[in-house]
Amino acid sequence: MSSIVQAVGLTKQVQSGDQPLVILNEVSFEVEAGESLAIVGASGSGKSTLLGLLAGLDVPSSGSVSLNGTDLFKLDEDGRARLRGELAGFVFQSFQLLPALNALENVMLPLELAGVKEARQRAEISLQQVGLAARAHHVPKHLSGGEQQRVALARAFVTRPKILFADEPTGNLDAATGAQVIELMLELNRAQCTTLILVTHDENLARRCGKQIRLAAGRVVQ
How much is the mean pLDDT over the chain? Predict the structure, then answer.
């Protein structure tokens, strides 16, 4: 196996009044293709900042990230967006579904943006995989939180990403619904051999991942 994600000396600092505030400090690690990694730590430890840097949604003060052999920060913003489109899927705590589109249309959207001809067929299969074929024509406000997160999972996996980035995917769900979403996410992950990188407060979810990184005050402590 080879590293699909490699972070070297990642540091992020911002100006806070007169003082620089260090959010991440010299974070380095690798993730092999097909592995699952949980990034854990207290609130304010730098978890979401790290995920944003790994995905190229933010730029570090120093250090580098390589995704599938490409140095992210040697690319401009458009280049990083293209690479994300080719490689990555995303699941967020707040679901990020478009309210005017029904479940099927939300799942179809990334395929349509990529010009995939069989977008509807693939989206229908993806909704079936998450058990929501019967809810395909419901808009988000008519779906429960768990159903919305399953639509978000279907949308993330429909592009068959090499890497899935997930930020607190069970954060807005009750324990039982969260457990169902965890099972589904890990099942889809195994079926597609996706590399999973997630930020979570959920120790149960973290333990289900092959690797864990624990952050404290912007540094890796475990």
Answer: 90
